[in-house]
Amino acid sequence: MSGTVTGSLQAGPLGGLLESLPLSYPDAVVVVGTAVVGFVAGLLGPLAVLRQRSMFGDAMSHGTLAGVAVAFLLTGAKVPELLLLGAAISATLAAFAMIALERAGRLRSDAAIGVVLSVSLTLGIVLLTGISDSGNAQQSGLDEYLLGQTAGMVERDIVVALAGAGVAVAVVLLGFRLLRSATFDPGFTAVAGVRTWVVDAASTGLLALAVVLGVRTVGAILMVALLVAPVVTARQLTTRLAVLLPLSAVIGAVCGAVGGLVSGRAELPAGPVIVLLATALAVLSVVLAPRRGVIARARAGRLREERGRVAR
Amino acid sequence: MSPDDVMIIVIAGLLSTSCAVLGGFLVLRGQALLPDAVSHAVLPGIVLIFLLTGERASLWTVVGATAFGVLCVLGSDWLRRSGVVESDAALALVFPALFSLGILGISRFASGAHIDLDSAIYGDLTFAPLRTISLFGADVPRSLVITGIATVAVVALVVALWRPLQAASFDPAFAELAGLRGRLTGQVLLVAVAGLAVVAFDSVGAILVITFFVVPASTARLLTARLGSMLVVAAGCGWIASVAGHGVAVSLDTSIPGTIGLTSGALFALALVLAPRRGLLARWKART
Amino acid sequence: MTDDVLAPAEAAGGTDDVLLRTGGGRMTEPALRLQGMSASYGGRPVLTGVDVEIPAGVLSAVVGPNGAGKSTMVKAALGLVPSVRGTVRWLGQPLRRVRKRVAYVPQSDAVAKDFPITAVQVVEMGRYPHRGWLRRLTPADDDCVAGAMAQVGVADLADRPLDELSGGQRQRVFLARALAQRADLIVLDEPFTAVDARTEKALLEILTRLCREGVSVIAVHHDLREVLDSFDHAVLMAGTVVAAGAPADVLTPEHLETAYGMAPLAAR
């Protein structure tokens, strides 16, 4: 075991980076891995939250299970990249199913999400049950996708996550203006000649990317919090999208890194620790934020009222 | 079919009836995702009661779990009303945090205990007939008693609150002005959903909770034009899914809650395409 | 059952008497009186220092530009907005004592669009204030519902699902619900927004007729021309009350300048 670790330490492309951290190698892998996952989720979370589609992310992350199971059944082996691909495909399918139910089926969005969430989760469970009943020795660990797992994280996972992060950053930079008009003013993009389905497809693809990268670390059930909490925190501190996106990404990365480290030290599962950290920050910012916080607003309201009374 | 099989179907069917009746209102009020959130949020309640009493299936468990379910509902409602967070984001913020607390509680303090996460999520409907309690001298499956009581209570509640529930779901301002206490009955509905989600969670696991609350009600909405018939059809869909899903699970030897969920989904897909007035085919024909 | 005395038309009973009311004598109190009312949404004040009296037995309009707080004033007075201060008197009394006598027709998008309900079931709700949570609707209630539907011309739509009706038909159904309540005062929030011209004219005629019979009508409205032509009374809003009284006295160029920052009637 230690042999392979040293081996990858020398051979891994990230060896230098991981070594430079004041941490043991396994800790460094987990911290960097969760930080990257948090970064991507924080960067892409606004695509869901600002368009009032937060729970979309929940259904998509539950949708990954069926894809993982199918990929495993097709390849018969646990190749992480193929499982991720399966997860990405089924998460995207789930997203399109929800959009189709809303548009063509005239369902309200919460009912559409509920139906897709339910069907994709039960499908995933049935498939996973089938796999575990078939007694395939390698299957153990497939259901870690439900609750997440950092223990098995290796350098290769970080490379994959970094590649995903690169894609996410590139797409967000290239499409920033489009993204801004689509998130804040859906009517505008239609006018500007860009079809709404293009924007929908692109943002769905990006969300699928974030979900798929995160789902193995924090789990399908908790993934939605990693998409939503950093955005809520950042939203309390800024109203400009150009600031919001990087801020939310950094918050996500910090929660990921700190959560990963703490959970390793305290021997707790990483997903819940990261999620609780991110949620605590979000709740703090909702209460305490300088201008948009609950306290600040209440104070401003009272001031205005007093001023009004004096004026009269 | 063995008596155990019948028992499983009856438990699932009873549960689907009560879930469909409350779920119908949730779907119409735009709160369809609440049961899913609640079913996750109850975990810390179950763990806490286990740590305090050492029991994992007592009346206290139900009370503790319901308390956290209500906490989830109230917490997300507070976030929403603060005007800072949209309602969907509020829900997405609250329930994962509570579920996380539950998992941490299990892994820190109760890892030796038999709070089996798998059975909490997948449900152990298969073993439901085996866990019995004695009632009037006879051994009766615990889940049957609990789901039976829950179903009767839910149906009685909805009958008693029919007018305020109907009016407040349709036209909240009218319900308030007519003196029907619409907001109050809305809160009663949410507490009932939390309690029922706990019962369902205990018997069929978290997966089927969202299925039973949302899918049959959405199917029925496609097929009916009146609230009353919608709720009856929704309960019917739940029973059909329970019977058929159980059959499929037995013949394929797979997860019973899973196949019940898939059968519900299949019924929904059928209704979506073929429903007489609101189905895709009917609307496509009406357009051409 | 003493409460039912407050619904005089019900005592008269019978479908033919739907329009017959005994109200006249009690109408000395104003339909609505607001004193020092203010309301806010999420800490942001929408209305401040509203003092106004709307007389009973007339067709009154609440007008003003978008965001002037027209709907908010009405909703706040009806207790549908959380943070409200000031004194509100409907028909001379606090709202809770006259609930049954006040009917409300909401803005069309405030109602669940996709609700499984038939037209007659909507109109039956108009009897709920009199029958409460549990008491069954009597044959007299059924007559009242049928009469109200006939009066607004939707009797033939009784069993149609609401989501199959046009905007105009829906609005007629909601007015029928208010009529079925046999209220002394009907409040309508933007009743003509999703409605065709013919329905608008028909609804306006019904409302005018109701006023002749002693019912008070308050409608939030945006069509100043129509207010001038058909309404007896107007309240012009812009965050507070700019002017109130006879439409011709209220909708003067100076007042409109204050409310809109320009003269919208001249602009047409």
From TrEMBL, chain A:
It is a multi-pass membrane protein. It comes from the Bacteria. It is found in: Cell membrane. Its main location: membrane. InterPro entries: ABC_BtuC-like, ABC_TroCD. Pfam families: ABC-3. The chain crosses the membrane at residues 28-50, 83-101, 113-132, 158-176, 217-234, 241-262, 268-289. Keywords: Cell membrane, Membrane, Transmembrane, Transmembrane helix, Transport. Coiled coil: none annotated. Gene3D superfamilies: ABC transporter involved in vitamin B12 uptake, BtuC. Belongs to the ABC-3 integral membrane protein family. This is Metal ABC transporter permease.
TrEMBL record, chain B:
The chain crosses the membrane at residues 6-28, 33-53, 59-79, 91-113, 144-162, 188-215, 227-249, 255-275. It is found in: Cell membrane. Keywords: Cell membrane, Membrane, Transmembrane, Transmembrane helix, Transport. InterPro entries: ABC_BtuC-like, ABC_TroCD. It comes from the Bacteria. The keyword Transmembrane applies. Its main location: membrane. It is a multi-pass membrane protein. Belongs to the ABC-3 integral membrane protein family. This is Metal ABC transporter permease.
